[in-house]
């Protein structure tokens, strides 16, 4: 089969690999029809996530058709069209039994602090991902679900991570009616978080980024008020000014490890790998939210320490909430929102790229070329 | 004497008002307030003990066969019943990785810094190995840099005041820098050897 393969920082190519075999009785092998590149894949691509091995296939957002099932699989059969949450989880451990699907204890021998994620380094379990023609899907009776007949495949693939994570980010903000919500980052997760904040009753939604084309999308798609931090000497002071010097009630970090806006932080983290991530957006969230406010962290950071302004968070009495999204818990409600038109996930897709051209897709997404917001990968398109 | 006063509600008990009321927002934004009630939000409460609903039909999953000694965090009591089998450790990078997992917990910076170091060694080993293969690494095609020409590299940056343009020049240095240093070392070393051979 053809598969994307990591060759070292900033380098990927497509190689011929064996179709993955069934390795556990509850495995399924899925033939991928559509995949995506996630902003967090760029952390791997840039060599920021520890134990990212040359030869690994990335990709934790994908949908497809069941090709083969293991002997204990009851809920799926070959030919079923399925969407697969980015979380790999057993459904039965201490954490899964309590709904913390992203924190499963039975799928990642490499780290207890991280659950299992497709194609996301050995720190997330060492599973190959879905930017390929075929992918092994463990616990086929637990994670995947049939794609509803009425749902477009492009919407389904975005429900496997980006939309579920953005909505979850708004949800962790514990938004109440009339809250002022500031979202740092106008990438896919930030756009979905901003849109979801309205569903939860926000009274004002502000999005901050430095890419004008993404801020334009935030205004159009998420009805948000936007600010380009490059245009302000100090974006925290500006945020205070536009909120009556109070600060936002809720701040959502939808940027994570490679945030821009402070050269020293960015270079020490994203380039020199001396921090687990560049916490610029998180620090702006801490300083920009009001005392007693809530911060929701959806941005992905590596496991190494980061220079976070924790003293301010403590002194301000903030509530910090965060987790990888337990995707399948979000689905029933999100399916309703997609069906009744409140959310149209595929509105943010900007590029559809054949698997064979994935190196250019990674570079385009990483360097933010051509107005790229969300690139999809099509394995079958030559 | 005048009463102390301020236009800023922040310094009083009032909250600054929003520009639009809930009714105006409901009329303008499709779905506004649909999940106003936290009970309608799908992961509330965060922990909900409900082990029968995940689809799992086991108390503890069957164990996947371990085909080679699988490295694992020493914070785990056992090898997890299911695990990824991509890219078994090999070479010097594999030795560093196995040492890091065997010796240090996730709580130790040494664990992660060794794994990052192993990643760099892995890239070097793989690049060198590729030169002895029918398909050597190709920095032009693998970096996707040709997208600069097909995806409007200049127009995407020029006049945009993007914060990332300041440091994007470091990227080629990160990719090519180690190769240039190695090539320089080879040149210097070869010249030194030749000089010594000539007496």
TrEMBL record, chain A:
User: Which Pfam family, just one, is annotated for this protein?
Assistant: ADH_zinc_N
Superkingdom in the source lineage: Bacteria
Residue ranges constituting the Alcohol dehydrogenase-like N-terminal domain according to the UniProt record: 25-146
Which terms are listed as keywords in the entry? Answer: Metal-binding, Oxidoreductase, Zinc
What CDD domains does UniProt report for this protein, alphabetically? FDH_like_1
List, separated by semicolons, the cofactors it needs.
Zn(2+)
Q: Which residues form the Alcohol dehydrogenase-like C-terminal domain?
A: 188-260
InterPro entries in the record: ADH-like_C, ADH-like_N, ADH_Zn_CS, GroES-like_sf, NAD(P)-bd_dom_sf
What family does the Swiss-Prot or TrEMBL record give for this protein? Belongs to the zinc-containing alcohol dehydrogenase family.
Name of this chain's protein: Glutathione-dependent formaldehyde dehydrogenase
Question: From which organism does this entry originate?
Answer: Pseudonocardia humida
The lineage is:
Bacteria, Bacillati, Actinomycetota, Actinomycetes, Pseudonocardiales
From TrEMBL, chain B:
The segment annotated Disordered runs over 1-67
Kindly indicate whether the keyword Transmembrane belongs to this entry: yes
Q: List compositional bias (Basic and acidic residues) regions by residue number.
A: 38-50
Query: Per the UniProt record, which residue ranges are transmembrane?
Result: 173-194
Q: Which UniProt keywords apply?
A: Membrane, Transmembrane, Transmembrane helix
Can you name this protein? Uncharacterized protein
Species per Swiss-Prot/TrEMBL record: Pseudonocardia humida
């Amino acid at each position: 089969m053809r598969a994307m393969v990591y060759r070292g920082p900033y380098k990927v190519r497509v190689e011929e690999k064996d179709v993955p075999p069934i390795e556990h009785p509850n495995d399924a092998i899925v033939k991928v029809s559509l995949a995506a590149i996630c902003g967090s894949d760029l952390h791997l691509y840039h060599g920021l996530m520890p134990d990212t091995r040359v030869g690994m296939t990335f990709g934790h957002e994908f949908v497809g058709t069941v090709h083969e099932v293991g002997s204990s699989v009851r809920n799926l059969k070959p030919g079923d069209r399925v969407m697969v949450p980015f979380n790999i989880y057993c459904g039965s451990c201490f954490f899964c039994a309590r709904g913390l699907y992203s924190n499963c204890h039975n799928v990642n021998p490499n780290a207890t602090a991280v659950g299992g994620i497709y194609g996301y380094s050995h720190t997330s379990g060492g599973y190959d991902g879905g930017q390929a023609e075929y992918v092994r899907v463990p616990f086929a009776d637990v994670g995947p679900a049939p794609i509803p007949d009425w749902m477009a495949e492009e919407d389904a693939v975005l429900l496997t991570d980006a939309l579920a994570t953005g909505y979850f980010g708004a949800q962790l903000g514990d938004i109440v009616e009339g809250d002022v919500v500031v979202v740092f980052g106008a990438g896919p997760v930030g756009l979905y978080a901003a849109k979801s904040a309205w569903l939860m009753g926000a009274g004002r939604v502000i999005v901050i980024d430095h890419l004008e084309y993404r801020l334009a999308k935030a205004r159009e798609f998420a009805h948000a008020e936007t600010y380009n931090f490059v245009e302000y000497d100090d974006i925290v002071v500006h945020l205070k000014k536009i909120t009556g010097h109070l600060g936002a009630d809720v701040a959502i970090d939808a940027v994570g490890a490679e945030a821009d806006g402070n050269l020293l932080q960015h270079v020490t983290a994203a380039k020199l790998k001396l921090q687990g991530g560049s916490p610029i957006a998180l620090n702006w969230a801490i300083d920009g939210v009001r005392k007693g406010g809530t911060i929701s962290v959806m941005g992905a950071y590596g496991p190494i320490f980061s220079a976070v302004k924790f003293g301010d968070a403590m002194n301000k009495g903030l509530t910090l909430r965060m987790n990888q999204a337990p995707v399948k818990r979000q689905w029933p409600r999100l399916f309703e929102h997609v069906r009744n038109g409140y959310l149209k996930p595929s509105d943010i897709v900007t590029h559809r790229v054949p698997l064979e051209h994935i190196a250019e897709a990674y570079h385009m997404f990483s360097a933010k070329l051509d107005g790229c917001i969300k690139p999809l990968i099509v394995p079958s398109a030559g | 004497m005048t009463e102390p006063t301020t236009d800023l509600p922040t310094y009083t008990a009032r909250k600054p008002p929003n520009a639009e009321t809930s009714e105006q927002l409901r009329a303008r934004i499709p779905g506004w307030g649909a999940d106003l009630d936290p009970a309608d939000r799908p992961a509330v409460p965060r922990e909900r003990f409900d082990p029968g609903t995940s689809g799992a039909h086991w108390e503890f999953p069957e164990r996947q066969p371990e085909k080679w000694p699988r490295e694992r965090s020493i914070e785990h009591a056992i090898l997890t019943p299911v695990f990824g089998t991509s890219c078994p450790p090999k070479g010097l990078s594999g030795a560093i990785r196995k040492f890091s997992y065997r010796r240090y917990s996730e709580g130790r910076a040494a664990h992660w810094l060794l794994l990052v170091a192993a990643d760099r060694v892995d890239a070097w080993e793989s690049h060198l190995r590729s030169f002895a293969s029918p398909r050597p690494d190709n920095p032009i095609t693998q970096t996707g840099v040709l997208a600069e020409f097909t995806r409007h590299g200049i127009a995407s940056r020029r006049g945009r005041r993007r914060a990332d343009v300041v440091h994007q020049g470091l990227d080629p240095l990160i990719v090519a820098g180690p190769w240039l240093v190695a090539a320089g070392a080879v040149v210097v070393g070869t010249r030194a050897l030749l000089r010594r051979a000539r007496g």
